[in-house]
TrEMBL record:
GO terms for molecular function: tumor necrosis factor receptor binding. The lineage of its organism: Bacteria, Pseudomonadati, Bacteroidota, Flavobacteriia, Flavobacteriales. Residues 1-21 form the signal peptide. The keyword Zinc does not apply. One of its GO terms (biological process) is immune response. Residues 301-388 form the THD domain. One of its GO terms (cellular component) is membrane. It comes from Flavobacterium johnsoniae (Cytophaga johnsonae). This is TNF(Tumour Necrosis Factor) family protein. Gene3D superfamilies: 2.60.120.40. Keywords: Signal. Pfam families: TNF (PF00229).
């Protein structure tokens, strides 16, 4: 009984927090009289003998929760777009604001403190929808909003390259606005460069001409131009300097003069010897166009053919009067692919292109010219023989106006 009395007393004490003014006396089932307040306020309502939540607050009220004793509201209704938002002020007092107030706060930056950041974690739903606008502090002129290596949104002076083309609506430039080159790479390797001086290099980063194509070890240096009307055309320039295709081929001309003075070459009918006096190169187009492996080699005294075709070969030899038996059979010949070996037979089967003959009774000039079909890599040189007496040899006089060899492509 005492415990029941204490319990009833505790209940009445809790209720008395909200009771004031008039009081009434009631009798319990045990015959005890208890005085109670029949009225409630400050958020409570008396209804048919029940004290219920609901009603106006009559004084500031604080409901304190802890991590162990939390407050939950269940059964809340779904809100509508026009509903207000519940917020707390600096003192923790609950208040409502409209959604427009919240949007304006974001737009004006009033909801964020100085140097504040917003962390956005990726998901499947949209962060903003409709006509929402993100207002970011202005950057410097001509900068682009992008992300850095840490994933942060920053302003950058580096403009991005938009793949699949750009719709500019006006003329735009690509390049550098200061004194720097413009390199172009593929697969992380530089393929082409436009220097700050306007020179274009392909395969080289330091072009010295307006257009320069270069390749390692002489490979990949070709320049393919639109085809001509048919095969065998030559690219040349017209009267205005424009590149055009023309009929005909580039002529290769080699002119060789001999050393000045008298020279004697000891060679018999079965042992022709090399005439090695052509040391003065007047012109050699084959070497200048096709490289040092072709044309005339002064050291080996031989001509290497650069390309297939027909060639005109001319040889002028100035023979000296030898003072020996008249009527000796001197011969000077242009030999094909015998290189520097001695000819070991008579006329039959020898690789002659030409033969110049003369007696030795008096000084005389002998000249021959002919056309031969040659292949790239063929070798020509000049050899001599005294068919009558190999021990006396052949005497010639060298010099630009005396003994001359000319090789021309046709």
């Amino acid at each position: 009984m005492k415990r029941m009395k204490k319990f009833m007393f505790l209940v009445l004490m809790i209720q008395s927090v909200f009771v004031f003014a008039q009081t009434k006396t009631v009798v319990t089932m045990y015959g005890e009289k208890v005085t109670i307040n029949p009225y409630v306020n400050n958020g409570l309502t008396a209804n048919n003998g029940y004290i219920q939540l609901g009603g106006a607050l009559t004084q500031p009220s604080v409901l304190t929760t802890t991590s162990a004793f939390t407050l939950a509201l269940k059964g809340l209704q779904t809100g509508a777009a026009a509903d207000n938002l519940v917020v707390t002020d600096a003192n923790g007092v609950l208040k409502t604001i409209t959604k427009e107030t919240l949007s304006n706060g974001f737009a004006k930056g009033s909801l964020l403190s100085t140097n504040a950041t917003i962390a956005i974690t990726g998901g499947t739903n949209k962060l903003f929808d409709g006509d929402a606008i993100i207002d970011i502090a202005p950057g410097a002129s001509n900068t682009t909003l992008t992300t850095n290596s840490a994933g942060k949104v920053v302003w950058s002076a580096s403009l991005p390259w938009i793949l699949d083309g750009n719709n500019n609506g006006a003329v735009r430039s690509i390049g550098t606005n200061d004194n720097f080159d413009l390199p172009i790479e593929t697969n992380s390797i530089e393929r082409m460069r436009i220097t700050s001086g306007g020179k274009v290099g392909i395969g080289t980063a330091v072009p010295t001409n307006n257009l320069e194509i270069n390749g390692a070890n002489g490979t990949a240096t070709g320049l393919k131009l639109p085809t001509g009307a048919s095969a065998g055309k030559v690219l040349t320039s017209d009267i205005d300097g424009n590149a055009v295709w023309q009929s005909g081929a580039i002529q290769l001309q080699t002119i060789l003069a001999s050393d000045g003075g008298a020279k004697t070459y000891m060679g018999a009918a079965t042992a022709w010897t090399l005439v090695d006096c052509f040391t003065s190169v007047v012109a050699d187009d084959a070497k200048s166009i096709y490289g040092p492996a072709f044309g005339w080699n002064v050291g080996s005294q031989q001509y290497v053919v650069a390309r297939d075709g027909k060639y005109r070969i001319s040889l002028n030899v100035y023979f000296l009067q030898g003072g020996v038996t008249a009527g000796q059979n001197w011969r000077v010949a242009i030999i094909l692919n015998n290189v520097n070996a001695h000819v070991t037979s008579l006329m039959a089967g020898m690789p002659f292109i030409s033969v110049t003959t003369s007696s030795n009774t008096e000084a005389t000039t002998s000249y021959m010219s002919g056309i031969a079909t040659l292949k790239a890599g063929d070798v020509l040189n000049v050899k001599s023989s005294n068919f009558s007496n190999g021990s006396t040899g052949v005497s010639i006089f060298g010099g630009i106006g005396h003994t001359v060899l000319t090789i021309e492509s046709l």
